[in-house]
Design a protein that fits this description.
The chain contains 10 helices and 16 strands. By secondary structure, the protein is of the alpha/beta class. The protein has 2 domains: 2-20 and 260-366, D-serine dehydratase-like domain (Lyase, Ornithine Decarboxylase, Chain A, domain 1, Beta Barrel), CATH 2.40.37; 26-246, Alanine racemase (TIM Barrel).
């Protein structure tokens, strides 16, 4: 299992300020290769950039033949545009200033193919003045479908058909297709996940037929996230948008043992105190590791009995029988449970090659704004 793979101690750990985010480049490359193998072709991939937010990873995807991407923020959209992605989908309905900023980006990079998801007639109409003011080319519009997560989107039925007709009425918009995200389908058992995924996707296929009956062809369909990536890959005409596969994490590695990815992002922390004979305090607070879920928020391969006692802004206290072997200053490595928000907490990532932190990559799109 990936979580049991040893993390080699850095030969230059003494030079790395803690807490630090490390990315093992060979593991990341292996994850990218596995992603491409599952997809079958880079043409089928529209990877989500929200996990890593790194220009170097975007450039690597482009080198591997990827031309499309999905993003969650305007900053990620600009990151994609600057680094060779030709087809950029904003997977968050553009409202408020985001509509103006997206239109400005589309006007700045008119040779690229820009699009966004919509689940509201009001949002469709509201973006039209922004596109006109910016002098932007027609913006691609996808219908965002709710497959049961009840977070965004419309049900794949008559409401979606009406929304497609609304999009087609506006020359400033270009009809792109259907966006079907099923992030709530996190069953650890592959058979259960496959069954739930297929059941959730069936109404999407039915909607595509309904639209065709109305003489509205569906140019493309984007489906799934990382947990259902390999399931949707069996559908020949679907674009795939995994994001976490590039770095993976302890949460997904624990749940989805059928997927061939290995955690490539590790946190380096130090013992800053040993408050009791059987506990240690690390400089790994809420500001260094994602803390939106209950513990464990990180797994410690070299401290298998680590038990979280308290967690605050700058500190994580663990109970462990190994405490006597870990005096203050000791380096400790851990795998974040949820890598996406963990990356966003760090200004830079240290890239590990040959057991050494060899290079620092600024995490550009952790910012909410790059230039627009």
């Amino acid at each position: 299992m990936p979580l049991t793979l040893p993390w080699p101690a850095l030969i230059n750990a003494a030079e790395i300020p803690s807490p630090a985010l490390l990315i093992d480049e060979p593991r990341m490359e292996a994850n990218l290769a596995a992603t491409l193998a599952i997809a079958g072709s880079p043409a089928r991939l529209r990877p989500h950039l929200k996990t890593h937010k790194l220009p170097q990873v975007v450039q690597r995807l482009v080198q591997l033949g990827v031309t499309k991407a999905k993003v969650a923020t305007i900053a990620e959209a600009e990151l994609a545009a600057r680094n060779g992605i030709h087809d950029i989908l904003l997977a968050l309905q553009p409202v408020g200033p985001a509509a103006t900023r997206l239109a400005m980006l589309a006007a700045r990079f008119p040779a690229l193919r820009w699009s966004a998801i919509f689940d509201s007639h009001d949002a469709v109409r509201a973006i039209l003045p922004a596109l006109a003011d910016a002098g932007a080319p027609p913006l691609g519009a996808w219908i965002d479908l709710d497959l049961g997560q009840h977070r965004t989107g419309v049900p794949p039925g008559p409401i979606a058909v009406d929304l497609a007709c609304e999009i087609l009425r506006h020359p400033a918009l270009a009809w792109r297709g259907l966006h079907a995200y099923d992030g709530h389908l996190g069953m650890p058992d592959l058979a259960d996940r496959t069954r739930a995924c297929n059941e959730a996707f069936a109404p999407v296929e039915d909607l595509a037929r309904r639209l065709l009956d109305r003489a509205i062809a569906v140019p493309a369909l984007v489906a799934g996230g990382s947990p259902t990536f390999a399931i949707h890959a069996r559908r020949p005409d679907v674009e795939l948008s995994p994001g976490t596969t590039v770095l993976w994490d302890a949460g997904y590695a624990s749940k989805f043992q059928d997927l061939p990815f290995t955690p490539a992002a590790i946190l380096l922390a130090r013992v800053v105190s040993r408050p009791t004979p059987d506990s240690i305090c690390l400089d790994l607070g809420h500001k260094a590791v994602a803390s939106e879920m209950p513990h464990p928020r990180a797994l410690f391969p070299a401290i298998p009995d680590a038990e979280p006692i308290s967690h605050s802004e700058e500190h994580l206290v663990l109970r462990t029988t190994l405490a006597p072997q870990l005096p203050p200053g000791s380096v400790v490595y851990c795998i974040p449970w949820h890598v996406c928000p963990t990356v966003a907490l760090h200004q830079e990532a240290w890239i590990v090659r040959d057991h050494a932190a060899a290079e620092r990559w600024p995490i550009d799109a952790r910012a909410r704004r790059l230039s627009i």
